[in-house]
Amino acid sequence: MTDFEKIEILAEAMDVDVEDLNETDDLTQKTEWDSLAVLSFMANVAAKCGKKLKPQEVQDVVTVRDALNLIP
Known about the structure:
It is built from four helices and no strands. By secondary structure, it is mostly helical. It starts with a helix and ends with a helix.
């Protein structure tokens, strides 16, 4: 899976445009990265990639790159 496809998964979960996300963005500073977005991200990764993320893994996410690294 390409980084662009991974960013699409994250953008969909956050309900933002892909162009609004940069790998170095601090997700903790984005209001769109809320508990609903986290759950949506976990569900999207499970559905599209077959990987079930643990809550602790996602809780440790700070940057967009951190989130992308969780996607196989």
